C-alpha cells in the first residue's frame, strides 16, 4: 500500500476495482475491474506495475490481431473550442 498520496499528501487509501482506459497513438483500450488503491481524500488512483504491464500486453495483442476484444464501443469526439456556448 502507498504511504502517502503523491497529489494531496493524505495517507488513507481504499482498495477498489475500477475501469481503466489505456491510450496509445489515438487508440483506446477499456479494461473493467482493474484493482487499484484510491486515495480517500482526492481520489487519485494507484495501480500495481504488473497489472499495467499486463494491460499493455493485452492491448498489443489486440493491435497485432492476435486477439479479438470481447466488446467494442463507438465514442464521439469533439473539439472543445468548437462547442457552441
Summary keywords:
85 residues; alpha+beta; Ubiquitin-like (UB roll); three-stranded antiparallel beta sheet; 3 strands; flat
Description:
With 85 residues, this protein is an alpha+beta fold. The protein has a single domain (1-68), classed as Roll (Ubiquitin-like (UB roll)). The chain is built from 1 helix and 3 strands. A 3-stranded antiparallel β-sheet has the order 1-2-3, covered by helices on one side. The longest helix has 15 residues, at 49-63. The model has no long low-confidence stretch (mean pLDDT 94).
Output the number of helix runs: 1
**Percent helix:** 10-25%
Percentage beta strand: 25-35%
Low-confidence stretches: none
Largest sheet: 3 strands, antiparallel
Shape: flat
Number of discrete domains: 1
CATH class category: Alpha Beta
Write the CATH architecture name.
Answer: Roll
Order of helices and strands: EEEH
Strand order in space, largest sheet? 1-2-3
Structural class: alpha+beta
CATH fold-level name? Ubiquitin-like (UB roll)
Protein name: YgiT-type zinc finger domain-containing protein
Pfam families: MqsA_antitoxin (PF15731)
Organism: Alkalispirochaeta americana
InterPro entries: MqsA/HigA-2, Znf_MqsA-type
Amino acid at each position: 500500500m502507498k504511504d502517502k498520496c503523491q497529489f494531496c499528501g493524505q495517507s488513507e487509501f481504499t482498495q477498489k476495482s475500477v475501469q481503466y482506459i489505456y491510450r496509445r497513438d489515438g487508440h483506446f483500450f477499456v479494461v473493467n475491474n482493474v484493482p487499484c488503491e484510491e486515495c480517500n481524500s482526492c481520489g487519485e488512483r494507484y495501480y500495481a506495475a504488473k497489472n499495467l504491464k499486463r494491460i499493455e500486453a493485452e492491448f498489443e495483442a489486440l493491435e497485432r490481431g492476435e486477439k479479438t476484444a470481447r466488446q467494442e464501443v463507438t465514442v464521439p469526439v469533439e473539439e472543445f473550442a468548437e462547442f457552441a456556448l
